[in-house]
Every structure is written in structure tokens, then in C-alpha cells.
Amino acid sequence: MPEPLYAITSAAEARPFAGGVRVRVVRAGWFRPDAGGFFGVVPQPLWSRIVQTDERGRIVCRLNLLLVEAGGKRILVETGTGLRMTARDRDIKGVEGGDPVAALQAVGEDPDRIDFVVLSHLHYDHAGGMVAADGRPAFRNARYVVQRDEARAAHGDELRLAGIMERDQLDVVQAAGQLAEVHGDVELVEGVTVTRTGGHTRGSQAVLLGRTEGDGERGIFFGDLIPTRWQLPVRWTSAYDDYPIEAVEVRQALVSRAAADGWWCYFTHDPGDLPIRIEATEKGFAVRAE
Question: Domains in the chain, please, with CATH?
């Protein structure tokens, strides 16, 4: 039986983290990036051992969002591609679904009950769903959380970034008074912290889940710093990483912490079951057998 386009971790299976944080994965559709770009400098004989391409040289990836409940607030991490892509772009990129509002409604969740929307960065497959088809913010009662460096990059004049960041949607959110620019590590509610990673884009951010003090487990959502478990070799940089040297260094630091402390890991484009834990081996980092 084929997988449904939209799905969510059941409430009974929500992953609990320290401080009363509960996390569910929202499957908001599919997209198919070009394999060469996705794996960048990694030779095809290496990545082809773990994933196959379609007839157009693309791989099948998920659009994973997180629905986080903590401190009486509901936080959506990522917004997928949204609905504002052209039909041609959707075909080239193999997008199915992608609308965060439709995804939430399909699994019985109310978009108007979202208090915060966290964008790991401003590429189309993460921030394309900030604004609805009617031109207004898709989550009318939410604050949209973006790193200040990312917002500035979107409005800058770097040629590499021209047309690839969702600047217009960001401006709509800002005009509506719903944009919250943050700088560095910021705890949104107890047990949910955004942390600037850079690497993939200037202002990319990850989300740390679970209170740091006391008992209980912790987790991390990497954004496109590590989009799938396939990129656990921390030197596997993508052609889409704007700052690959920084990306490798930050990946090494975060993955080392995740392995050492047993963090549960969420990946934004991984088609497999989430979350997973990882471990350090003689050959590098690997998925930990549970």
C-alpha cells in the first residue's frame, strides 16, 4: 500500500523530551532534488551505494516538518514548499504536496493554533509555505522565527543568493508584524531553543529540543545542515552549502554531541522513520541500533 501524501506521528507516539516537550513529525509531501547537487563533492560511486535516482537523476526526499508542544505553546518547524511555485518548477523539482496548512488539516491539526513557526533557513523547500495562496501569512496567529543573519542575506546583493531565498514571503510576514528576527541561541519556550549554525546558508539554524538541566532526553532538528541520515559522514558537503568549510566544522561539533549524549535526531528531508540516534564508530558516525 503506498504511503499517504500527508501523515503525522500519532499523539500517543509523540517523542517526549526533558521539560515537558513533546514532538511529532509531520510528513508534508515529497520533493526530488538532483542527486549531483544534493551530494555535491561526494563521488557517485559512494552515494549510489545508499540511494538510487529516478530516470531524471533525482532522489526521492521527504518534506518533514515538526510539530512541537512545550510550555503551553505549539511550534511548527519548517513550512515546506508551499503553493506559490510554478507548475514548471514543481515538475522539475518533483514536488508533491508541500503545503503546510493542507498537511496539518489533513491530519486533524488546526493551523490557527500554531504559536511559532521556525524556519531553519529561507530556501524554497523550507520557507516556501510562509504565505498562503491569498497572499497573507499562512499561520495568522504565529510569530515566524528567522535568524537575523538569514534575513539580512535574503535582502543582500550576493549574486549566488539571487532568486533562491524567499525574500518576498519574508517581507509579507514582516509587513504583517509577525516576523521575529533572532540572533544566535534563543529559547522560544522552556525546552525549545533555536541555535545559529551557519554553514548551509549564512543564517541557518537548528532546533534543540529538551531542557538542558535535570533528567530527561534531548533532541535536535538539523535543518539542511544535515538534511538526511545519508549525510552523517560530516565531510559530505552539498553543492547547496554556501559555506562548506563552516558546515563541516559545525556538523562535526553537533553530531559529536548528539552521539555522546544520546540525542534523538530529526532530519528535514529523510524519507525514513524518525527520530533516530547515532553513534561514533571507527569508520565515523552511524545510525545507532535501538
Answer: 7-287 (3.60.15.10)
φ and ψ at residue 173, rounded to 5 degrees: -65, -40
Q: Is the pTM of this model over 0.85?
A: yes
Quick check: bond before 45 cis, omega within 30? no
Query: Digits of tens for pLDDT over the chain (290 positions)?
Result: 468 999 999 999 999 999 999 999 999 999 999 999 999 999 999 999 999 999 999 999 999 999 999 999 999 999 999 999 999 999 999 999 999 999 999 999 999 999 999 999 999 999 999 999 999 999 999 999 999 999 999 998 887 777 789 999 999 999 999 999 999 999 999 999 999 999 999 999 999 999 988 789 999 999 999 999 999 999 999 999 999 999 999 999 999 999 999 999 999 999 999 999 999 999 899 999 87
Containing 188, the helix (H) or strand (E) segment is strand 186-189
DSSP secondary structure code for residue 221 in this structure = E
DSSP 24-40: EEEEEEEE--BHHHHHT
Helix (H) or strand (E) holding 7: strand 7-8
